[in-house]
Every structure is written in C-alpha cells, then in structure tokens.
Amino acid sequence: MDPARMIADLEGRARDLARRAREVREGVRAAEAVVGSPDGVVTVTVAPNGALRDIRFSLPPSGVSDARLGEVVMATVRRAQAEVARRVAEVVEVEFGGTEAVEFLTGFLPREPGVGAPAVPPPAVHPVAVHPVVVPAEVPAEVADLPLPRSLRAPDEPGDGGGAAR
C-alpha cells in the first residue's frame, strides 16, 4: 500500500474516532437520572459521575421518622446512581460497544436489588475513613474546549479561527 494512502487512511480513522469520542463526551455530559422514592417522599437528581445534584422532599402530613427518611433517601440515591451509570454505559456502548473498555465499564455497574444482585448494605455505624476520589460533574472548559489537531478535525469542523498553523 502507498505510504501516503496509509497516512490518509489513519488520519481518517483518527478523525472518525475523535468524532465518536466527542459524541460520547456530550452524551455522558447530558446523562443524569431523576428518581423518586416509591412513596413520593424523596426525589433525587444524580450527575453522570454519580454525584448527588439535587434532593427534594415532599413529606406527607403524617410525617416520617428521621431514621425512615434517611433510609428512603439512601435507597433513592442508590437507585438514581444505578440508573445514571446504566445511561452512561448505554452512551458509550453505542459508539464503542464490544470493546474491552466497555466490558470493563459495564462490569462495575451497580445492580438493583432483586435483579441478580443483593442489596447494597448500609454503611457501618463507624466506617473506616476513606478518602474518595472527587470526579468533577463536568469536564473543565479549558480541557473540554481544546481544539483537535488540524489533521484530526472533520472537514466541516471549525479550527482555531485564526488561520495560524499549529
């Protein structure tokens, strides 16, 4: 095969992969889950990374005990986290299905109780201190908006606007 043709083919594949990655990034950014408790007392909104974005309470006139409310909140948050994880996996699956990366990702999806997995146990009364990894709900603008190298841009994709060579 002609070296120039090989390079053109590789650049085309890279452009396609970059386009697919952008579509996945946008799909993941848009993924969120809004889930209500079965009794309607709690409604939560969870970000694509599983972080709690919003919580709303609609307490019935009879009231709910603090302990019961805590249980309902945690169960609802877990359901929303499982739902948003499934949505993110679906977005990735559309573009990159059948790859080891997708299999790895879907292997960590939480399963709802009664659907092939035990319920997530409540935390211990005195849990061991864990330093969680904080994942931003959105990619910082300075990273997300970096232009692709010219050779990876789709023909109709705008460049840097300045016409300067990169």
TrEMBL record:
Region (Disordered): 145-166
GO molecular function: DNA binding
Pfam families, A to Z: YbaB_DNA_bd
Gene3D superfamilies xrefs: Nucleoid-associated protein YbaB-like domain (3.30.1310.10)
Superkingdom per UniProt: Bacteria
UniProt entry keywords in alphabetical sequence: DNA-binding
Ranges that cross the membrane: none
The name this protein goes by in its record: YbaB/EbfC family DNA-binding protein
The organism of origin for this protein: Saccharothrix syringae (Nocardiopsis syringae)
